[in-house]
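Appendix B, record 7
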Amino acid sequence: MKKLNLAFIWHFHQPVYQENPTDDFVMPWVRLHATKDYLDMLLRLEDHKKIKLNFNISATLLNSIEKYANGFHDIHSRLLITKEDKLSDVNKTFILQYFFDVNYSTMILRKEYYAELYNKRYSKDDITINDFSEQEYFDIIANYTLCWIDKKFYSIYPELKELAEKQRNYTYEDRIKIFEIQKDIIKKIIPTYKKFQDENRIEISTSPYYHPIIPLLLDITESKTSYVENLPEKNPLLAQDAKEQTKKALDYFEKVFGKRPKGIWLPEHCISMKSVNMLNDLGVTWTVTDEGILANTLGREFARDFEGNLEAPFDLCVNYGFHKKDNKVNVVFADSFFANLVGFGYGNYDGKVAANDFYEKIKTIQSKLQFSPKENHVLTIAMDGENCWESYQNDGEEFLETLYSLIENDDTLETVLLSDFTQNVKPEKLDSVASGSWINRNFDLWIGEPTKNLAWIYLNKTRNDLSDYSREIIDNTNDEKELAKAKRMIDTAKEEIFMAEGSDWFWWYGEPNESSNDHIFDFLFRSHLKNVYKCLKKPSPKHLDVSLTSIIGKPIKQPKGHIKPVIDGLVNTDVNYWLNAGYIFLPDSPTFSAKKTIKGIYYGNDEDNIYIKFELNKNNLANSIYFIKNEVSIYFKTERQENANPVRLAHRTENMYPVLENQFGYELKLSFNEHELIPPQLIKAGYGGMWCLQLIRKVAYAYKESIEIAISFDDLGAVSEGDRVDFCIITSSNGNINEVYPQDILLSLTR
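C-alpha cells (predicted):
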C-alpha cells in the first residue's frame, strides 16, 4: 500500500491573565494545563520512538510558563498555600464559586470526597460560607488542584500519588508540597521540548506573540460582516503591529529554543492573502489553516459519506504553494473532521475504542489515495491539545497510547514534521487563498457584533493615541538620556496595546460565546488599554472605566423587520405596531446621579419613514412655566449627505463618548415639558461647521403618554433604497449634554 504521511499538530494557547506584567495571574489556566497537558503530551513520545509530532505553542503562553517557573503565582495558587486560620470570608466565597470549575464526570467523580463536597456545595440554593469548615475549604482547594495533575506524574513523584489518594484532611505542608510539585513540572516543560526538538522528534511552531487575528489587523475590511456600525477604518498602525507581533514571536522562540520556527499557526486559523504575504516577508516557510478555506479557495466543497469520511481526499491531502515566484510559503489544510472528533466527539467514548475508530478513518483515506497519481500525500490533523482532554477519562491516556501504537506498528503510515515534508515535496500551486477562519469560514466570532465592534473601536482609538502621544513625547526630549527613557516608556506602552490586540477578548465579547469569566476578560482587555495611557503618563479616557459587557444604551433587541405604527403617543396602542422595532432599555446610569427622563426607546422603519418612540419617566421631567428644558436631539448620518459636522452641543462632563466622535448631516430636535411638545425642528449640517434650519416636508408626531415621531427618509437628503442611515440620540438641557444613547455605537436602519 502507498505510504501516507501524517502531520499531527497539537496547539497550545492561553491569553495574558495578568493585569500588569509583575502581578499575579488572575486566572489559573496556564498553571493547571501545564501540569495536565503540556509536558505529559510530550513525554508520551518516550514510549513511542517512531512517532514524530508537531507542537504549536503561542508565545504569550510560553512567556507565562517561564513566569510560573520563576515563581509567579495566580489567585488560586495563593489560596493553595494559605496557612490555616488565614482564609477571609472573601476567600471562602471565591473558593465556593471557582474551585469546582472542572469536568464533573471525569475529574470530580474520580475523587469520592471531592464529589461529596461538590454535592454539599450545590445541595441548596441558599448555601453560605458558614456551611463549610476551615478544613473543608482547604480540602476543596487541594482536590481541585490535584484534579489538574496528570497521573503520568505519579511515577515521577511518588508522594504525589499519596497526596492524590488522601482526599481529605490536607495540611499546610501537604498543600505546599502539591505546589512545589506543580512548579517542578512547569520548570521541566521548556528544557524537555528543546531536548525533543534537538533530537528531531518534534517540530515547534508558534503564533504571533499575543495571538491577534492577523487578517483583521492587516485590513479590517477582510471581515465581510453586515454589521459594521462604527468599525474603524483600515489602520496602517494595526497592520504594522501584525508584522511586529509575528516577528517578536519568532525572535522569542529562537532565543528560548535555539532554533527559529519555520512554521506559524495563524491564530484561530484566520488567514488571508495579505497575511500569507506577511509571513513570506518574515521568512516563514509554512502555515496551516482549515479545509473550509481550501473549499472556498478552489470553489468546491469536500463531500463526505454518512460516516464523515472524505469521498475524494486528493486535493486536501497535499501541500500548496503560490504561483508568485517570490512567495515561498507552503500552506497545508487540516482535515477538520479529525480535529472535531478529538475535540468534541470522542470524549465520552472508551479511549481504546475511539483510537481504533480514528485509525480506521485514517486507513479509509489512505485506501482512496492509492488511486492518486501523486506519490506523496499528507493528512494534516491540527487540533487543540489542551482543553479537549478534560472530557476524556484519565486525561486521554488510553486514547493517545492506543492511537500512537496503532500508527507506530503500521509500516504504511509515517508521522512527519511539517518542515521536512514541505521542504522535500513539491507543492501544488494556487493564485491566492480565500480569507476566513476555522469557524464558518469567516471572522464573525471576533467582529461584526455590537460589543465586539465596540472593542475594536476602543482598540483603534487607543492605538492612534499611542502613536500621537509617542511623537509628542519624543519631540519633548532634550538629550540622549531623556530620549532613551522615552523610548523605553513607549515600548512598554506598545506591549500593552499588543496584549489588547489578542483574539481572546473579542471571542468572549457579545454573542454567541459566553463563560462564567466574561467579566474578567472584559476587565483585562480594558486594563491593557488603560495601561497604555498609564505607561505614557497620560489620563485614560473615561469610557475605559465602563464595562463593555454592560454598556448603557446598547440595544437589547435589533429591528426584525419593517414597522408601520400609528403615531398617537399612547402606551396602550396595539403593541403589534412596534413588535418588530429595535428596543433600548435605559436603566439609571451609574455615570450621573441625575434621574433620566427617558426609560426606553423603540426604533424602526418602513420604505418611507423612520419611526422612533420614547417611553418617558414623567416624574423626572424638568418643568418650568417659562422655559421648556427637556430636549432630545436625534443626530443622523447618511451615506450621501452633503456636509458633516460634529454635534452642536456642549459637553456636561469630560467624558467623550466614542459615538460623539462621529460627524453628522442632520439633527432632529424635540423640546418638551410635562404637557407640551414643541413642533420638531430639523437642522442640516452646513459648510464649515455651521448648522442651518430646514423645512420638514413629511413629519408626524404625537405626545401623550409617550413621544412618537415619524420622519421621512426624503427629509434626510438623498437616501435611496438600500442606503443605510446611522443615528444616535442625545438628551440635553440648555445646550449641555445629559445622556447619549447609545454611548458607543451608532444605531442603524436601511431604507
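Remarks on this record: Residues 588-594 have pLDDT under 50 and may be disordered. The first helix runs from residue 29 to 38.
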